[in-house]
Design a protein that fits this description.
The complex is a heterodimer of chains A (160) and B (510).
Chain A lengths: L1 H25 L12 H23 L18 H40 L4 H22 L15
Chain B lengths: L2 H12 L2 H19 L5 H8 L8 H26 L8 H49 L4 H18 L4 H15 L2 E2 L6 E2 L13 H22 L16 H7 L2 H14 L4 H16 L12 H24 L5 H12 L8 H4 L1 H33 L3 H20 L2 H19 L4 H24 L11 H37 L5
Antiparallel strand pairs in B: 1-2
């Protein structure tokens, strides 16, 4: 319960900050002109203001004593190991984005799948088999069948 | 041509050549996607949308609708067997379906789910066939103000009708609308929040948002489940079929659920989840054995499953006739229609009758194919669910990454998908629903253009937002829902402060 309330306050604070940044950025947008009384600026300003207001209400609700609702997620703080795993998964995706133009699709897909399985503590041998098999499957579906033009590797056509 | 003739033409289109193959493939693959724990119609359509890019619009939409229907069927399988819903619409099925499976009646629960889905889907489609055009004719009376009011009501209803705090739903709406403002403003040509990046001049890719919010976020969530060793295993025992007593108990549940599901599905924002909840409540009230609900009452499976599938027909009516998605899955279908260059709305039946009736015809065909697939292949589907969780989620992850890239062959879309994946994961941890956010991204541009057009027509006069009874009614309902949702926490805080003040100041002073 305490963890849930803390998360709600954190999110509310984040939305207040985000709304403030969005609202201040909206002032740099052109104003209304003839024939368009609302203009391109007013709608974003309304949205930013409403987000800040709703976030304040959400923040206040955490002090009201009502138990925060929870969907199908386990209550309580997550272990550090789980957070680390999720962080590493995100890092794997970032690595895919950075490496795809450099080493091409097959190598980067193999890297993503293999890294992901290792993060989830799968043994090395099944990891290599799954990574190779799934990479081949995705290559056939997306490159051969769907003709998706992935970027060429700077190392040449060897890895494409 | 009469409605029956159009429908016959549509079914003939669906049964012709490659279109029939697309229906079968879509229904089959959709069932498997819907079965996978954590995935559902929204994610299934999002993940498989890139597979349709090379198809013609009719074929592509036929496949997507097959996937939609198939994943509705599939979601109930993991709910019943794994106690893990395929998506939010399958949560209610889990309440009695899984206890039935634990009692060894999993086969009967799956069979009941298949029959209920077929009946619900059929009734929903028949209602769609005969009611879509009358609603379309009525929709032609809608001007910018009416569109704005209706879309606002749809978004607010989505945010406030979901279980949980309405404020969180409204925050999700705001976030989605803010995302929709990114890009070059259509009316003035002014850049908004593009940060000088040409990749953002056309706004944020809707498909990237979809695969991020529902695909990558799902992988992050499932990673947590796998690390905590909470990934479930499948057991199935008992006879596959329902016995005579179970048939007798469900005889009205199929039809009651279908009617509730269709009516709820028409309301933009309600969707299958609300339909299943209302159906479950109705079945419990009508049952002679209400104490059995939650412990394996078969009516608790039959009614909600019929409602879930009937809501598909209902949700397609506002999508086709008004361009308003009735659920997150139809929001993705709306995105698919836009990708194919089709603008849904009142003119869709006139300008693209082959497409619309082809889709409706394919849904009839998919409904029959799915009941044929579900019953004999349940044993095979269950074996697939025994796939280890880690490789399964690796597949989901790669599908999202390659899917996001293949839309525009632009790595920037993968970056957007990752950003929304992280956002979606944070939202889940905070119990802020993702469906309203997605709906707001999909509708935000049109919502803003409608309100600006309405104000232009009225010369800037705010009364131009309510020129008719329809617009005024929807605006009034929206304001009421917002007030009801936002005042509750404030009043709760006031009640908490009042006793505290009384204690500190003394009795009779507050």
């Amino acid at each position: 319960m305490r963890h849930a309330i803390g998360m709600d306050r954190l999110i509310a604070l984040g939305c207040i900050l985000g709304g403030s940044v969005y609202l201040s950025a909206s002032f740099s947008i052109a104003q209304a002109d003839f024939g368009d009384p609302m203009g391109p600026r007013l709608f974003p300003q309304i949205l930013g203001s409403l987000l800040i207001l709703l976030s304040i209400i959400m923040m206040l609700s955490t002090f009201s004593g009502d138990a925060p609702s929870r969907e199908n997620h386990p209550a309580g703080a997550m272990p550090f190991r789980t957070l680390l795993a999720i962080g590493l998964c995100a890092a794997t995706v970032i690595a895919f984005v950075l490496l795809l133009p450099v080493i091409g699709f097959p190598m980067s897909a193999f890297m993503v799948i293999g890294s992901f399985l290792l993060i989830l503590r799968e043994p090395m041998r099944p990891t290599l088999i799954w990574a190779a098999g799934l990479t081949a499957l995705f290559y056939v579906v997306f490159v051969v069948l769907l003709q998706t033009p992935f970027p060429d590797s700077i190392l040449g056509g060897i890895f494409q | 041509m009469s409605t029956i003739e159009f429908l016959a033409s549509g079914i003939a289109t669906a049964l012709t050549g490659w279109n029939f193959a697309y229906v079968v493939i879509g229904a089959f693959v959709g069932t498997w996607i819907g079965m996978l724990p954590g995935l559902g119609p929204s994610t299934g359509i999002a993940l498989l949308l890139p597979l349709t890019y090379g198809l013609d619009p009719t074929g592509g939409m036929i496949m997507l609708c097959g996937i939609y229907f198939g994943s509705m069927y599939g979601g109930s399988i993991s709910s019943i067997l794994l106690n893990t819903p395929g998506d939010v619409s399958s949560v209610i099925t889990m309440l009695d379906g899984n206890p039935m499976a634990k009692r060894g009646r999993g086969g009967a629960a799956l069979f009941c789910s298949a029959i209920a889905s077929f009946v619900g889907g059929t009734i929903g489609l028949i209602a769609l066939t005969f009611l879509a055009e009358p609603i379309a004719r009525f929709a032609l009376r809608f001007g910018p103000a009416e569109y704005f009011a209706l879309m606002l009501f749809a978004l607010v209803a989505t945010a406030t009708i979901l279980k949980g705090e309405a404020v969180k739903g409204l925050i999700a709406i705001m976030l989605g609308l803010m995302v929709a403002t990114v890009g070059i403003d259509l009316q003035s040509g002014a850049p908004r929040f593009t940060m000088g990046s040409p990749n953002l001049f056309d706004g944020v890719s809707l498909v990237a948002v979809i695969v991020g919010l529902f695909g990558i976020a799902e992988v992050f969530t499932n990673t947590g489940e796998l690390m905590a060793r909470r990934w479930g295993k499948v057991q199935i025992a008992g006879r596959l079929w329902m016995d005579k007593n179970e048939w007798w108990r469900c005889r009205f549940s199929f039809f009651r659920g279908s009617v509730i599901g269709f009516l709820v599905g028409i309301v933009p924002g309600a969707g299958g989840a609300v339909a299943t909840l209302l159906s479950y409540a109705a079945e419990k009230r009508a049952s002679k054995h209400p104490e059995e609900f939650g412990k394996g009452a078969i009516e608790g499976v039959a009614g909600p499953e019929a409602a879930n599938n009937a809501s598909v027909g209902g949700a397609l009516i506002p999508l086709f006739t008004l361009g308003l998605p009735g659920s997150s899955a139809t929001a993705i279908l709306l995105g698919a229609l836009m990708v194919f260059g089709i603008q849904p709305g009142p003119q869709l039946f006139v300008e693209n009758p082959d497409l619309v009736w082809g889709i409706i015809g394919s849904l009839y065909v998919a409904n029959v194919i799915l009941v044929i697939l579900n019953i004999p292949f349940i044993g095979i589907f269950v074996k697939m669910l025994k796939m280890p969780g880690a490789p399964l989620n690796a597949i989901i992850l790669m599908l999202t990454l390659t899917g996001a890239y293949s839309l525009n062959n632009n790595i920037f879309d993968v970056q957007i998908a990752l950003a929304f994946g992280m956002l979606g994961y944070l939202l889940r941890k905070a119990s802020i629903p993702s469906a309203p956010l997605l709906l707001a991204v999909a509708l935000g541009g049109t919502l803003e253009q409608s309100v600006r057009q309405a104000l232009s027509l009225s010369g800037g006069n705010i009364s131009g937002l309510a020129p008719s009874l329809i617009a005024a009614a929807f605006l009034g309902l929206s304001i009421l829902l917002v007030l009801l949702g936002t005042l509750k926490p404030v009043i709760g805080l006031a009640h908490r402060i009042k006793p505290s003040l009384r204690t500190s100041i003394g009795p009779g002073k507050v």
